[in-house]
């Protein structure tokens, strides 16, 4: 089992993809500390997983990942429970307000940024010193379609996810000499609570095209949760050592064999957010393009 005798923290773990990731980690041999904002479903998930995996340690604690005090308390309890933490999976996230930028509630917009961006930053700040002391560590961040493509009428989500990927890339360079790998996953269109929120909002708020895409994704069942969950296991395992600073698609990228291309990954900007110039698209009107 690729995660045998390792300990992980998973945020947003009470349902949907977070629960699927936790299940995959337990199957792979890990002990898991779950957190989510709402206590009742979190404890239900904990009880369910403890019953399925009586030989694993499964702990849970309510936590708002945008709250620095609560995040610090989470890591304190996790280290008490496990001693060492080997991996951190940051799954908690929200769409935030939907609609044209000039009409949405700014308080909700800021709240989405708090959860999606600071909900990554704060756990990283708690985890990195622990990983440095241990001499290694794995951080996996759940990104989304908003990181690589504009999402009209869902601006808080798209903005925060792009920011999260750049934060991941930046941290990967800060941590490259400490054997701490940090990567992001694009999980695909998942038939979870967030897809239901888009459908409930309607085409007037989210736009006709995006609404229709979600209807089709819902009809088709969406991208299987297991793809992103298994990729999170891979990125938390020793097999992926040295792969860092990458945004990897669970659905489209050949992630099962990325360790076979470690030198190419380390010396290139593949799976990264970068500026596109006219030259990149075969356009010659920019006189500075060849400088």
Helix and strand content put the structural class at alpha/beta
Q: Output the strand order for the largest sheet.
A: 3-2-1-4-5-6-7
How would you spell out the order of helices and strands? EHEHEHEHEHEHHHHEH
Number of helices: 10
Q: Give the integer mean of the pLDDT values.
A: 94
Task: Tell the overall outline.
Answer: globular
The domain count comes to: 1
Strand content bin: 5-15%
Helix content: 40-55%
User: What is the CATH first-level class name?
Assistant: Alpha Beta
Gyration radius over CA: 19 Å
What is the CATH architecture term? 3-Layer(aba) Sandwich
Low-confidence stretches at least 5 residues in length (pLDDT < 50)? none
**End-to-end gap:** 51 Å
CATH topology: Rossmann fold
Largest β sheet strand count, sense and barrel closure = 7 strands, parallel
Number of strands: 7
Output the CATH homologous superfamily. Answer: NAD(P)-binding Rossmann-like Domain
């Amino acid at each position: 089992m690729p995660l045998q005798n390792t300990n992980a923290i998973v945020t947003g773990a009470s349902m949907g993809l977070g629960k699927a990731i936790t299940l995959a980690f337990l199957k792979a041999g890990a002990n898991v500390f779950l957190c989510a904002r709402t206590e009742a479903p979190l404890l239900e998930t904990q009880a369910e997983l403890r019953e399925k995996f009586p030989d694993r340690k499964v702990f849970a604690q309510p936590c708002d990942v945008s709250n620095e005090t609560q995040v610090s308390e989470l890591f304190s309890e996790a280290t008490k429970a496990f001693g060492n933490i080997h991996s951190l999976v940051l799954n908690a996230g929200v769409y935030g307000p939907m609609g044209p930028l000039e009409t949405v509630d700014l308080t909700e917009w800021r709240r989405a940024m708090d959860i999606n961006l600071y909900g990554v930053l704060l756990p990283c700040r708690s985890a990195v010193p622990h990983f440095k002391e241990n001499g290694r560590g794995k951080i996996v961040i759940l990104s989304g379609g908003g990181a690589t493509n504009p999402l009209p009428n869902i601006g808080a989500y798209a903005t925060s996810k792009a920011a999260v990927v750049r934060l991941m890339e930046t941290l990967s360079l800060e941590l490259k000499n400490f054997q701490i790998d940090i990567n992001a996953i694009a999980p695909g269109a998942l038939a979870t609570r967030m897809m239901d929120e888009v459908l409930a909002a309607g085409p007037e708020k989210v736009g006709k095209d995006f609404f229709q895409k979600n209807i089709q994704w819902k009809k088709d069942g969406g991208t299987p949760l297991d793809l992103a969950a298994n990729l999170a296991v891979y990125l938390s395992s020793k097999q992926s050592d040295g792969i860092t600073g990458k945004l990897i698609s669970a659905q489209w990228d050949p992630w099962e064999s990325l360790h076979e291309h470690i030198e190419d990954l380390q010396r290139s900007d593949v799976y990264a957010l970068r500026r596109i110039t006219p030259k990149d698209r075969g356009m010659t009107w920019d006189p500075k393009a060849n400088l």
